[in-house]
Amino acid sequence: MVLLLPVLVQACDFTPVPIVGSVGKVGQVSVSFGEADDVKHPAAWQGPLQISVDGAPQCSVSEDVSIVEEPVMLAGDVLYVPTYSGSNNRLYAVDVKTCKVIWRSVNFSGKTVLKQGRLVAGKSGIAVDKRCRPLGSGNK
User: What domain of life does the native source organism fall in (predicted)?
Assistant: First the structure.
């Protein structure tokens, strides 16, 4: 008897998006994060996020994706964006080609971190498929 189980792929390369001032760039993806909380030492950005791929005109991400903090990660065509409001943290997955939110986590406490090649939101690891899109619990 052979059991066929769904395969969870964690082979995506999560690349940190370095943010200088209010702009981040990885490869051909450029992201404008909006106004920073501190000009000299920014730790959060108000949004709205605007994304450009391969020099194409920018598209805007939903205003729900605001008060962004690092680390912002790019995996495939998906931008993972940690946000907070008060003590509620949330992680969004945004398709960089359309600027559409394709997934959002439930509220969590703690930070978003990259551990051993896996994205962790609070205490929960984020499982992704072969296209680096999130699987499992969350809200759309």
Answer: Bacteria
